[in-house]
Design goal:
By secondary structure, the chain is mainly α. Helix content is about 35%, strand content about 5%. The strands form six sheets. The protein has a two-stranded antiparallel sheet. A hairpin with a 2-residue loop joins strand 5 and strand 6. Helix 8 packs parallel to helix 14. The longest helix is centred in the first third of the chain and has 26 residues. The radius of gyration is 24 Å and the shape is globular. The relative contact order is 0.13. Pfam families: SusD-like_3, SusD_RagB.
């Protein structure tokens, strides 16, 4: 496969090999009047044709495992890259968002009107057509019809949810307008936040009701990636945790945001019952996942014999990268090879004898992300009374006791005595990179095999996103084999952390700690209580709601790093203005010596402008077509 990607290239999405994009059907904003009525009789003439239509509904899901099609990868601060880029990309949109270049005339990553060949409103429209017509299929068994209806409802709810997270209050399109609808009916209003949330949740409840959706996928050769009852309930839990969070729950920044008919779109009064509702939804989803046999992933040492350090690392990495592993609740398979490009964008040159141009190494974590991970004692580097924070940029030499660093190699104190997730998630000059076919040494000073040699194929910060590279990736000078795994839209650990957050907000600290500690145990850390009591300069931090909230937020940021979570979490927590305005630093990667390379370099000073940047702008053309639409504040 060619690795040179031209600007603007559009990649067709096919789900399960059978759903084709309806590119010729793309219309303007919220064109809900079916223009393909003459073909509907054929589309629902029999089971085979109707199934194709169902898979077309799936095909409108964004490719969340693609680095240029999910804003949460390259549109925030978890991964930075060199600029400008002349090649090695599909779209520049997310990188422009990260650099503060979003615009309202022609918004970047505009899934409202169409991005990557997809308008989510068009996807919703297709789902509605399916639901209106699937009853006509004469040779469809009732149990199968019920399942397909539930899947289409889920997909319609998920697309509303995706738009809601991007744009805030949105119109609700539960049904398509009739073909003879007057033009005035097209001029829809945005609906209040609570109405949108209630609609999404009710639609997910409808999808999950009864026995229509399977508990788990049993036909692994033909149905993996399709929706289950656990997936529906898990997405519902995420929606309700988001709705209970400060961005949507009592947000005074949007207190005066209203439609042109005077209808308020945000409730400025915080409602604690929203956290109760979120807590109950999380528990129901966890119970359903357990009933379906899902459990936290642990690496099976019978596959390959490894030491304890590597086993813990593979517990962490393979919980994301192992295909259809035990904690995956719902995996996105859009695109056929959903994480191929993600892995090649992330992986550096690991072998001094085998340079492969397909390995880009361009998804580079900034230094501030490296500093977020705990020390080996399981507390923040700013709190650990045994860890030398003041001298974290001074060079040290690794010994046999430093499992994550090459023996005899010099690196800064920041890279020593860190928690297992630091070494599992991030690589750096002097680190080790374990793969199924052996252990590689990362050496990335200028002119070393992983270092900068040209205007591309290097890490701008000196860090690499190891976590998202499947350990089965194999390469030599002329070939590359990538095991593409389904992108984990939601996995069990994510759900545990959402539940812990809701538990703390509703006053149940004991159970919040219980779920936090299950996540920490798999990551090789002691309990929150033990770690803070023993090592923190603030030993009682976990005993207050505010203190435990801070711990939950950092635990989630670490555990879900590089999985598209931080981008949205910072917004819903309303900490984005502080976090996304922090400077982007990296190492002096053009240097050749230990001393010169390990100098901190300012790469960029981003600015998150609140409240404007919490939501995408609606393209100005849509506001002219529909005067009942109001623009998001700040745009």
């Amino acid at each position: 496969m060619s690795v040179r990607i031209l600007k603007g290239r559009m990649v067709a999405v096919v789900l399960l090999g059978v759903a084709a994009m309806l590119g010729s059907c793309m219309k303007g904003f919220l064109d809900m009047v079916p223009d393909n009525v003459p073909t509907l009789d054929h589309a629902f003439a029999n089971r085979l044709e109707a199934e194709k239509y169902l898979f077309t509904c799936y095909s409108f899901l964004p490719q969340e495992g693609h680095p240029d099609k999910n804003p949460a990868f390259s549109g925030g601060d978890e991964a930075w890259t060199y600029w400008p880029m002349q090649e090695d990309y599909f779209f520049l949109d997310p990188y422009n968002i990260a650099r503060g270049n979003q615009q309202k005339a022609s918004p970047y990553m505009n899934y409202w009107d169409g991005y990557d060949g997809k308008s989510l409103w068009q996807g919703i429209r297709i789902c509605n057509i399916f639901l209106e017509n699937v009853g006509k299929v004469y040779d469809l068994q009732p149990y199968e019809r019920d399942r397909w209806i539930a899947e289409a409802k889920f997909l319609k709810a998920y697309m509303h949810w995706y738009l809601f997270r991007m744009y805030g209050p949105i119109p609700i399109m539960d049904k398509n307008l009739p073909i003879d609808a007057p033009p005035a009916a097209m001029k829809v209003y945005r609906q209040p936040v609570d109405s949108v949330v209630n609609y999404i949740v009710q639609t997910l409840d409808d999808a999950a009701a009864g026995e229509a959706l399977p508990m788990k996928i049993t036909s692994v050769t033909t149905e993996l990636g399709r929706v289950t009852k656990a997936a529906a309930l898990a997405v519902k839990a995420r929606v309700l945790v988001t709705a209970a969070s400060p961005l949507f729950n009592g947000n005074n920044d949007f207190a005066n945001f209203k439609n042109n008919n005077g209808q308020l779109l945000f409730n400025a009064q915080a409602d604690d019952q929203k956290w109760v509702r979120a807590r109950e939804a999380c528990k129901a989803a966890i119970d359903m996942a357990a009933a379906a046999g899902l459990k936290l992933y642990y690496f099976n040492s019978a596959v390959v014999e490894v030491n304890n350090f590597t086993r813990t690392e593979l517990n962490i990495r393979n919980a994301v990268g192992e295909k259809w592993n035990s904690e995956l609740i719902w995996g996105n398979t859009s695109g056929g090879a959903p994480t191929y490009w993600l892995q090649t964008y992330a992986c550096p040159q690991l072998d001094p004898n085998n340079f492969n141009i397909a390995l880009k190494a361009k998804l580079a974590p900034p230094m501030k992300i490296a500093e977020l991970f705990y020390t080996k004692n399981g507390v923040p580097i700013t709190e650990d009374k045994t860890w030398d924070h003041a001298n974290r940029f001074k060079l040290r030499t690794a010994t046999t006791l430093d499992s994550g660093i090459q023996e005899g190699y010099k690196s800064v104190g920041l890279h020593f005595d860190r928690e297992p997730r630091f070494y599992a998630d991030i690589a750096f000059d002097g680190s080790k990179w374990y793969m199924r076919n052996g252990e590689f040494k990362v050496q990335s000073k200028s002119e070393q095999w992983a270092g900068k040699k040209q205007s591309r194929i290097y890490s701008i910060t000196g860090y690499y996103t190891k976590k998202i590279v499947n350990w089965n990736l194999v390469f030599d000078k002329t070939s590359l084999t990538v095991e593409s795994y389904p992108w984990p839209v939601i996995r069990l650990t994510d759900l545990y952390l959402l539940y812990a957050e809701a538990l703390n907000e509703t006053g149940d600290a004991a159970n919040a700690l219980r779920y936090l500690n299950m996540v920490r145990e798999r990551a090789g850390l002691k309990s929150v209580e033990s770690a803070w009591s023993t090592y923190s300069t603030n030993p009682a931090k976990y005993t207050s709601k505010a203190g435990l909230r801070e711990i939950v937020h950092q635990e989630r940021t670490i555990e879900m790093a590089f999985e598209g979570s931080r981008f949205w979490d910072l917004r819903r927590w309303k900490t984005a203005p502080q976090e996304l305005s922090k400077a982007i630093y990296g190492w002096d990667i053009i240097q050749t010596t230990y001393e010169d390379y390990n100098r901190r370099v300012l790469l960029y000073s981003p600015q998150f402008i609140a409240p404007r940047d919490y939501f995408w702008p609606i393209a100005e053309g849509n506001l002219q077509i529909n005067p009942n639409l109001v623009q998001n504040p700040g745009w």
